[in-house]
Amino acid sequence: MSVASALGQLNTATYDAVAGLKARLDAFENPGRKTYGARHKAHREAFEAWARAPRDLNLQSALTRNQKDVEIASDPSGGFGVPLQLEDQLRALQDTRNVARRLATVVEVDTNDYRAVVVGDETTAAWAAETDARTNATEPDFRQTVPTFGDLHVILRASTWAVEDGLDILGWLSLAAGNAFAKAEITAMISGTGSGQPRGLAANAPVTTDDAASPLRDSQTLKYLPVATGSPLAMSADLLVDLQADLPEEFLAAPDRCTWLMAPSTWAAIRKLAAEMTGDAGWFVGPPQQPGAIATLLGCGVVLAAQMPAATSDALPLLFGDFAGGYLLAERGGTRITADAMSTPGYIDYHLRRRVGGAILNNRAVRAGKFAIA
């Protein structure tokens, strides 16, 4: 090894060590802020340079080299992996704007053939004296959940002048794509068809079949109970109590994990129902107890999502249960990006995509509330 080569390696090692110490010091002084190492900073800078001139072959090569340094795999279909800073900003926005994502179980997978195993509630135990014969317990019922995948994607357009004049590329991409991803994702988690997208909680029309019925209810179908009856339809506190009580004990026993999911208009109707009650309605609805907390219905938290159906005839405006136990969201790989600076003169189109799958994990963990037709 030449002296120059040895000095080069020493300089690189020293630079990385100093950058690491700076990152540790910044993390100590700013404990709430995530820090990024020298290689991730270099990747971000190469990405921003390429994003401003995506047709530049030298910038493409530089981004490819930096992508390898941060261990982002190449994509056979083209495009680049986004910097870790942008990936984190996208995930943070999705967590904030997609309330269903915060409730569900989210896993990272490395194949579309990922399968989650769920054990039913049919296994039983028995008692016996010391010398009594033992009989086999009821065999457990194993079910597999296979999420259906699709490409969650968005195309964002910026004028060439805006890009050249110093547009905050990372900030703009994270805000625009993060919001778009969140809206599409929560819609799919609720009502996705399972064709080129996640299968939603209400993809299959919920039925009245009990959990223990034979044959078993389809694994991707929820059970529903009426929460409004009559003509005209009127929501009933008693029926809401029945809906909550119908959830199996294993899920209801952890009220901090049980949540009501509904549209803002449905929550408004429930609050009006509480206002019409005589006496103290605190057992029925409760306001947030502290900043950052959420309101409660029958002691369990209420989460609002505009993507939930409105409370109209024959609709399913309420979901209740343990969503972490009931729904699986699977992500394969990070966010990829391609840029098109040729198709539309004066503009650059950025195509961001991520592979996401989803399906009901355990159809016993969530119940639907229906506005039944009289």
Characterization of the model:
It is a single chain. The chain has 374 residues and is α+β, with helices and mostly antiparallel strands. It has one domain (82-374): Major capsid protein gp5 fold (2-Layer Sandwich). It is built from eleven helices and 15 strands. The chain has helices spanning 3-29, 38-52, 57-69, 84-97, 99-103, 160-164, 169-191, 237-245, 249-252, 264-275, 323-326; strands spanning 80-81, 105-109, 116-119, 142-145, 148-159, 223-229, 234-235, 258-262, 285-286, 296-297, 300-304, 318-322, 327-340, 347-360, 366-371. The longest helix is centred in the first third of the chain and has 27 residues, at 3-29. Mean pLDDT is 86; it is low at 23-31.
Quaternary structure of the protein: single chain
The topology string of helices and strands comes to HHHEHHEEEEHHEEHHEHEEEEHEEE
CATH topology-level name: Major capsid protein gp5 fold
Q: What's the number of extended β-strand segments?
A: 15
Which terms summarize this structure?
single chain, 374 residues, alpha+beta, Major capsid protein gp5 fold, 8-stranded mixed sheet, 5-stranded mixed sheet, 11 helices, 15 strands, 24% strand
